[in-house]
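Chain X:
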Amino acid sequence: MKYSIINDNFRNFDVFEINKLKPRVYAIPYKNLRKLKSTDVLTERYNSDTVRVLSGEWDFKYYKKSSILPVNFDTDRIQFVKVNVPSTWQRTGFESPVYLNTRYEFHLYPPELPDEVPVGVYRKLFETDKAGKNYVLSFLGVVSCLDLYINGEFVGYSEGAHNSAEFDISKFVKKGTNEIVAVVHKWSTGTYLECQDMFRENGIFRDVLLYEYEKAYINDYEVKNTFLGGSSYSTDICIDIKGEFSGYTVKAELYDGKKLLASDCVQANPDVDFSFENLCVNEWSAELPNVYELYLTLEDKNGISSVIRSYIGYKRVEIIDEVFTFNNKKIKFKGVNHHDTNPVNGYVMSADDIKLDLTLMKQFNVNAIRTSHYPPDPMLISLADIMGFYIIDEADIETHGTGSIGPKKLYKPNLISHDVKWANRYVDRVCRMYYRDRNHPSVTMWSLGNEAGGYRNQDICYTFLNGICPEIPVHYEGAIRTKRVGYDVISEMYTSSDNCEKTGLHTRGKKYIGKPLFLCEYCHAMGVGPGCLEDYWNIFYKYDNLMGGCIWEWADHAVRHDLSDSANEYEYEYTYGGDHGEEMHDGNFCVDGLMYPDRKPHTGALQMKAVYRPVRCERVSDGLYRFINTNCFKDTSDIAFKCAISKNGETVKSKEFRLCIKPGRSEIVNFPFIFDDDRADYFFNVKYEDENGFEIASEQIVLKDGLRFETVDTNGSLTVLESDENLGISNGFGRVVFSKTSGEIISYCVNDNEILNTRPADNKKGFVPNFFRAPIDNDSHGGINKWDSKKLEEAVTEFMGLESDKGNNSVTVRCYYRVSNSKKLLYNSAVEYVIHPDCSMTVTASLKRSPFADKDIPRFGLTVELNSERQQVEYYGRGPYENVCDMNRHCEIGIYKSTVAEMHEDYIMPQDNSNHGGTKYLKVTDANGNGIAVYGCPKFSFSIHNYTQSALIKANHREDLKDQRTVFLSVDGFYRGAGSLSCGPDTLPKYRFAFDDEIKFRFIVKPL
């Protein structure tokens, strides 16, 4: 079939839509009511007898340049290839993936586009049994724009990647075989409004739907609920009927389960209104998502023409005296930011993908989702209605790249948002978001987009929303940097917990008074982290004008490759910016989620689950504990409280009970216990489980901290053997040998079992002072590592000598080190070993700062390489997951067993990992129990791996880390917190390592 292709709409600033239908609600009609009732929000799209899902195999032709796209396009002569729709070019091999954060892919001045723009042409055939129906073709998502043709004729044009684009194609459809041709350009003038932090992908990435209506059909509807007092609401329904509706009736039925609450039936007209008064209903909330089923039926004497189901929820969203309320309750958003991202399919999110994400969010105690930074597939919001989430529905507007715009990279963040020539494009995107999603009970705030400067075009959008939907507040973070400050709420991203406290106290300034504060992004979850999450929530709970926030972000963005596929050209399973040959990219900044790309939880997700816990416990006094229900609507009657007292990691008393604590209230429980050992640790441990036995959260409260391991065996004698190179201490069955040239222990052998690695991968056996860590993502900001300016990684540790003293029952060896950089002395360090008759050692490490050295360093400890056969690990400390001092709420102190390999946290970008704090003992042994034990005096942190720290520093992908046939153990007296510095504040001062002069820590090593 022949077409005359229009090849300039994408760069014509005067055009952003042609013949596109007005926005309307997303709804899936049926003719068979029973069939509709057999579906749910995830399956109704795919089982309809009225809507045909055209997703699947399409023909495709890719052109690298728009200039070579034939103007006279003959589909019979084009050599198409087969592709699946939905999909994107970058995930199907037509282009390489590109990840950018704040930049456009080209350096031009808006609305200019490059002379050549890649373009893809899609073709799909479909059959119709008869003409005369009403056909609407709906594209749920296309990047960047769409020129649509049917059967040789031009139908229309659309921009707005994440908004639905619908066209009435009735006059173009014929009986028999029909042909769709969709021309998709990589960029359009609309691209300037789509500069979001994500992989930049193109194509038809959401489902394509063909609505096959009869001669009369329900086109749109709106539901407005009005609170009347108590549990009483009224419901007003306005229905838009299209087509030849003479002789048709419209029926509205509202059900509570199988119970009919209200119904009415009238003759069909273009606009049909229903009003149900004095309905006694249960209100909707994220905790108790009470939904009612509304069925709208259009029928005549021949039967049903169209029936639609809508899930209705009754709610009140109000801001009262700068407090955000929902159904008159002061709620907190325990939220996350959610991008559409699949490791294989990119932007394409299947129904199963969406269900998995929301199911995991529920399991991890999330109650709010910001749809960053565009409206999601409507299926996600429908599922949020059912499962219970507060949705911050965000418009597809971001102009971040104007912060570095044009060939000269000018800084003009307000360039587009202050240009009213763009205003109709802004309003169109907001308008389409609103009309599609306006009936959803889960939509709790509208968002005008993200990082788009402002405020002039945003003002116009706000006026539109406030005029048509005053009952839902409007959010836009960018307003904080303008004289608008905020629309209905004040929003900030990555502000500090200290600033939140000041806002709560009204001591931060006038602009932060009068509206509630919402952190649309906070606690950047990149790599190890986020830290300080519990500190934020201790403040959020204190002040009613703090709404909570949404952690950035839900899942890592990365491209997955099948390493078993011989056709795969990549050596890494997951790749990020710069791995695909792209010249312009932003590295691994996209790998910043709470979940790995496959939705395995990061440690940060476990920490979030613990902090977002619905019930909190605090110790009142001996035997008395207060349980606080942080929910606003739901009591705790369905939660099992499993409480226990542990002594030195072993349970000595336990009890399970249930409490019906009302929302926002607390209850004190008596759980008495007599502590019979002052030299023991005691903890109060609580696990909260749902009715299916799933763990909602857990907590641990320290009752006594008395366990110590500071005694050593002093019975026996030692012999000192000394040469020019070495100093040896022996008890007859064991020995400790020091190198006089390096200060290292080069042999630690007991009963003919060598504990150390005699061929260390790092050429250092141990114990060696260490004050650096392989940089974690949150050690860097803007790509600059916090420690780069201090050159800590390049600092040289120089051995200055050792001295020894022999006592009655011990030998003391002192090793001295000088740490310098650029000929400047940074630190003096000393390690003192007191060797005891059983060959155990009391080790004391000290670090003294020079005036040139920073007080703040990532860690201070000692490293040692053990024999590679020592793979069994047992410890008494925080576990079983990695933890640091500002991120440990998810880990309880107990006795844990693992292996060295299992201790590794497999970050896509390798970084220092698997630290375990609060440790009192550690045992590292072989299969026969031979090895060493480390005992804290009183506590230490440790990490242990089959690779060295230097190998970890060099690695850029997880596959770069190889088993080096060693056991690299770090024993630390201090390990710095993680914070959120990668895109936010550093860790709090109390979690940093700051010392004015000298610090020391001590531990005991015993052979096993």
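Chain Y:
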Amino acid sequence: MIPMRGFALFLLLASSPMALMAQEAPPSASPDEQDVATDADAVQSGATIAGDEEEYEEIVVTGSRPPGSVDGDITPELVLNPADIRAYGVSSIADLLVELEPQTGSSRGRGEGRPVILLNGRRIGSFSEIRDLPTEAILRVDILPEEVALTYGYRADQRVVNFVLRPRFRSYTAELEGLVPTAGGKSNVEAELGVVRINRQGRENIDIEYERDSNLLESERDIIAATSGSPFDVDGNVTGIGGAPIDPALGTETIAGVPNSQPSLADFGATAGLANLTDTTGFRTLSPASQRLAANAVVSRTIFGDIAATGTVRLEATESTALLGLPGYSLLLPASNPFSPFANDTRLFRYAGVDPLERRSNGLEAEAGFSLNGDLPDSWRWTVTGNYQRTLSNSQTERGLASGDIQNAVLAGDPTVNPFAPGLGLGSPLLTDTARSISTNASVVGLVNGSLFDLPAGRVSTSVRVGLNTLGQDSRSVRSGILTTNDIGRTRGNVQGNIELPLTDRNEGLGTSIGDFALNGNAEVEQLSDFGTLTTLGYGARWSPITEVRLIVSMTHEDGAPSPGQLGNPLIATPNARVFDFVRGETVDITRLDGGNPNLTADSRRIFSTGLTLRPLSETDLTLTANFTDTRIDNQIASFPAATAEIEAAFPDRFVRDATGRLIQLDNRPINFESAERQDLRWGINFSKSIASRLPERPRGEGRRQRGEDQDGAAPPPAEGTAPPPPGDAPAQQADAPATPSTGGQGFGRRGGGGRFGGGGGGRFGGGRGQGRIQFNLNHTIVFKDQVTIRQGVPILDRLNGSATGNSGGQARHEVRVRTGWFRDGLRANVIANWRSGTFVDGGASGGERLDFSSLTTIDLRTSIDLGARPELVNNAPWLRGARVSLNIDNIFDVRQRVTDANGVVPISYQPGYVDPVGRTIRLSFRKLFSPGRPARGAFSRGS
């Protein structure tokens, strides 16, 4: 455990590189140095970046927006250029989004904070269209506030991430990585192959990925098995009926371990009061064994002259196997049975051998999507996207032994069936539950956006989206021999409109005093076949008094229906699921029921949000953000929370207890709460600074020759699609465009009036030869209120003060994430720290069964080396060009959250191995980008 004081020390150390690197500013580059500014990019990546041979550190564009920018006048909160992206050291867009989660998350909506994804400023058919693209293909990343989502037909409850690709790029990619916990027990191996080609005619990429994960057993984490529940054992235990003594000769003892296969009463005298105990931790998995195979293909072309068309196909197959413990059974052993030495009827508890119960699951997901984008007169744009997804899942869960025949033989006194014999029950069938579901999702969306007319303060922009969506969920399950089917279908049509009215311009009239000010409004009507008409209404304002400050305020009223999965997922029973019963303060093994709840109702949300973005230093890439959100949800749809007294009082039919009060079954399906309220503040700091290379400079133009010389040493032909060099009488700026010193952010003025090409806060357009970056990001979430009203007349659940959100405790009031990174000359190091404040749960009927969940600090390390950027390596081994080796350590100090009861004791179900089974991990990966052979001169036309 790292105390808060240690975390504060880390913040100090993590931020110190900013002050250090402020003194290490790179010297001004000469024109010669700028001319080869980005040769290192291609050399170290091994990819062909055609058409970008001269990618300068900074390009000033006057009267023009950066290519691929989003529609509208809202500028990005954060912009990442190629150097920023390289500093993260990740391989694909999907990996980059994981690293950007603190900057892209939102607490407004239903999508768990996931952002809206755009490509080159346009909608995409699905995330599969771009998820596997290598980060080397990215020219720029724009991160924008939730209000931009309205322009593209989404609700204003997700941030927007716009990926802008290089105009020309080619590569073959191979990556192999392995992961192991330092505590051992399991391993993970992943392999990936990809092909990408981007040029003027379009884009193609194919990606194949395979992943294999071994299981992790409880015994590999020194788990102490729970002792509560029925006393099953491989040899067996005998108990009295209803708590009565086993036999008068054994006194008042109510339990005795079976001593041998032909026990006498005297033999039981030695074990009276002593139960046999089988360690089942070697037969239960903390994480299952799994495999995954995925293939993705994307083709994008320009059709009919000016329509960008993209098609995507993705297939993914998964399978997993979990171990659920040993199959236990109990037999009523009458005193008349020839093998019973007792005067009273007794009960025998046994495990049927040492073959564990299993849950075997497999799934197959197929997805196909398309997108069409085009332009209309007067700066209007249109988009049509479509997507079809079909998911098939199957599971077989073994839940126990079919011991009916054995019981009948014992009751009949069959002399051939010895209840104490070794291996009894091994030939009996296992009781198996099955579940199968097929879900489908088909959608078509049309969007038109543009400018209606001009006001003195600017353009009045609008967007209209029309969509049609069909959802299906067909499920069937067999539990205890009973067949349950559920077939849910939903058709949804929707229309959404958005409008923004600029009222003042800081360059004219009243705007010279108050700055830019604009109002916006949006409305959506949805017609659902199963829930009727649902509406969304939103409105807000945007104010930028000066270029360095922007304030956005919005209000949204939204209705939402539960998903078909929440309504109709098949019922699955998991035996021997270990939970903590807050009511009795004990850990128990129960049967947990999961699936859909057809009785869920639609919810209604009211969301107020205000966001402030500051860029205080014009000469520094420093951005400060703060977002306050106040949410109220009526009829909230939620996962079932922890087994506390207040929850059991509200939902008594979800809990099943035996005659002694011990919890034996919990219905974990989703529920509706009457209402929920939450208030939180998310603020952050984003800093980025370029640093100079320490590698020796190459002579002017040498990098370009090294990048593609043939075996004879002759200069290579131009890359595919590369324009010829400027003529000899071209202006100097065209031939050798000078770099412009970074000026920080362009601020929040309306677009089109000049300014830095990269947009606000993002750094330079290109990476620069050998240019490095130092980055610092801090994000802090403070939760002021998190309360749930189950129903009127029932106490309010205060998740900040003793009520549980789940088995992991209450809602942490503070969550902090810090990321500091350094990248130069192919060497990269990132340190990521996460801190979450402690919580507690008062779960008992009298409030006395309290559990304390400690604060938690974890620190991760990401390191890598781009071998192609190190001349001393590439000169001796040219095949290393485009190669990267990465070493990542997650949870460096192997810390876990500590959970204790009122006596300071760790409950069985909160042992460290349960809280975080994997712990500290080490991941080693090797990635190679292969540049396809350059075509002979003339093999491609300039338009290719």
